[in-house]
Every structure is written in structure tokens, then in C-alpha cells.
Amino acid sequence: MSLSDLTGRWKAFSYGFLDPSAKRELRRKMIKAVSVPGCQMPYASREVPIARGWGTGGLQVTLTLVKPSSTVKVIDQGADDSVNAASIRRFLSRVSGAAETWDTLDATLIQSRHRIPEEKLSRDQILILQVPNPEPLRGVEPNMSTARQMHADADYGRMWLQLYEQMVRSGRVMLGASYPAMVNGRHVMTPSPIPRWDVKKLHMAEHLTILSAGREKRIFAVPPYTRVEPLVFDDVPYKVEDHAHLTCARSGVTGYFMNEIPQEDGSAGYEVSDSHFGIKAIDARDGGTPTVGQTWYRNGELA
User: Which of 29, 102, 244, 291 lies 20 to 30 angstroms, CA to CA, from 117?
Assistant: First the structure.
């Protein structure tokens, strides 16, 4: 008996790379996640052609949902042209036949690492967020069995205590990303390492958001028109990053989330984090007529 006798003839991959049983499981778990907003659902995370921790959870969800008529957009911290975003987008197109796009308005599936686009998403779009650490209680309870029991009991006292200690010691909550939020008044989730600027975009949004952690094998969701409320004290309002007065050096837009760019003289310049939104602004400034959607923020304030 030879190795060829044991392996059999080569066959092409299933549509969308993942095998049918993996897709069935993911679809069932996504339905459960939508039915219980914010609650983590375990799943058997499969191997995909990227390393764990680089977006395997989001990629598996996208591969399960994609179809030939889909239009896929992939961003990495707001950028469409980063190595990770471009590689994932090209892979999705090759294994599914779906169209690729940089335009938020044209996409039906938007896979993102650490950002939500500035333009509002519609009910026909699905946002897929890559999540490195899905457990919001990990910082206060390292034992995951105990943490899951705390979720079952809605026991979030330790998390409130952590926020209070930060207020006492620093005068403000120090969490810059992954800010915990109460979903539908029941489960606390970590909304991926998106900045505080983006957390409010999930509240009563028209689109479906699916969050998946491939390394941790957990998936959860925020259905359309669902309350997503950051954990805040009644006398200390929730504050986003103070970017209202910042202007993008390339596009000239003001009042959106900016990336700080160190300059040679030691000063700092700023560029709008949503790269294609900036491209549209440059096109409009140069006399073009790009289609720009309604944005979540205006002049640094949630519209």
C-alpha cells in the first residue's frame, strides 16, 4: 500500500474554502448569537490560510456568508490598502467569485479589524468585526468558567468596580478601546478593539454586526435596532476621543476619527482613519462627484 492509495485523488476545495459542515455550524451559531444579543457562542474554529490572531474569526464568518453576488470590503484599522486587508480581500474574491470594493456604500459584507467605517451602514449590509479577546471579564476574572457563570448571573459588579477604580486613580476611565458595553440590557460584551468613537455606532444601528474570535473560538452578534450602551456612571458621561478640531492633512475633512502621524520636526500631523472616506473627500475637492453617504458623526458629535 502506498501513500497515494491512502490519500485518494485530489479534489478542489469547497465553495468559499470552508467545508460544508463548518459552514452549517457557523450558520447555526450565528442564528443563536443573533437570538441572544451579546452572548458568546462557542464554535469549532477551523484552520484558514492566515495565522491565528490575524483575523481568522472574521474570515470564517465572511467565508460562510459570502456568495457570488456579494461585494466584499475589508479594512484594517480603517485602511483598505494594508497588507492584511488586501490579502484577505483578494483571498475572499478568489475562493468565492465575489466582487471587491473599497467603497463602504457598495459593499454587502464588510470585514473590519478595529474600526467601523465613518459612513452609515444600511440594513442590506453586514459588518463582521475581528475580535482578539471576546471576554470582557478577563481583566477582572481570569478563570473563564467563573466568568461564564458571572455572565449567566448578570453579575458585572467587578467590572463596575474596575471602572470606578480608574475614575478614582486617574480621574477618568482609561480604556481607549474594547470599551465594555451592555447589549439589549442583558449581556456585557467587548465590541472588538474599536475605539470609543465607534462604540456608539452600534447602538440602534440598521445593520447586523457579527463579532468573531477565531483563536478563542467564540462568536457573538448585535442584531439591527438593538441597544448597545457603554458602561458609564450616571454622573460621569461617556466621552469619545476629542477629534472634533482635528483636520486631515490630505483630504481637509474635519470632525472625524484621525490617525496621528509623527512629523520630522517632532510635531504631529493627522489623517482621517477611514482611508476611502478620505479618498472621496479628495476627489470632491478636486472637482469630482463621488457618492458620499451619511456619516455617523458631524463635527466630532454623534449625529
Answer: 29
